[in-house]
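Private note to self, pasted from the team thread so I don't lose it. Backbone tokens:
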């Protein structure tokens, strides 16, 4: 008879919506969701060790773009940013950078945390014919899985070998955190 009474009491508690929740489930936090453009600020890394060597022509160099979480919540970034370079010459137009073959990882950013990604660049000499060089002016940078972008002024000068139609260009981007 004790078993039947316990079963009836448990059924009444469940029906009333006051079922006990294990302590571990009650204290668990929801996993962070992805970072949105409005959660972030962005810029070029400009420290001496982060500047691309735009004067070393014919050899790849790297520029770094950072994202900092300016929101009051923890959020994640995973994948590739969208990067469109807008040229300074009338013949440059806009060049949407291709992605490397590197595998992305998920990065968790607390309030004020920063991560970055690199862009491999292939600089060329000033004497390169205009039609073979791209002169960067601004970069339109869109965080992964977002549609709104940041507009960043290119601070390093120089020019890049124009390979916007190439299958494997010497200028391309890497995933967030790499």
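Design output:
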């Amino acid at each position: 008879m004790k078993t039947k009474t316990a079963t009836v009491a448990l059924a009444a508690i469940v029906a009333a919506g006051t079922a006990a929740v294990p302590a571990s489930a009650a204290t668990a936090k929801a996993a962070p969701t992805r970072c949105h453009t409005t959660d972030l600020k962005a810029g070029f890394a400009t420290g001496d060790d982060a500047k691309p060597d735009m004067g070393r022509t014919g050899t790849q160099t790297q520029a770094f773009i950072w994202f900092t979480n300016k929101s009051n919540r923890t959020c994640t970034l995973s994948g590739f940013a969208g990067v469109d370079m807008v040229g300074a010459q009338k013949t440059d137009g806009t060049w949407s950078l291709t992605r490397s073959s590197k595998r992305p990882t998920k990065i968790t950013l607390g309030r004020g945390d920063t991560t970055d990604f690199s862009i491999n660049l292939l600089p060329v000499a000033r004497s390169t014919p205009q039609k073979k060089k791209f002169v960067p002016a601004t970069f339109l940078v869109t965080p992964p899985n977002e549609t709104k972008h940041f507009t960043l002024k290119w601070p390093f000068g120089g020019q890049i070998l124009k390979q916007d139609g190439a299958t494997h260009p010497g200028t391309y981007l890497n995933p967030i955190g790499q």
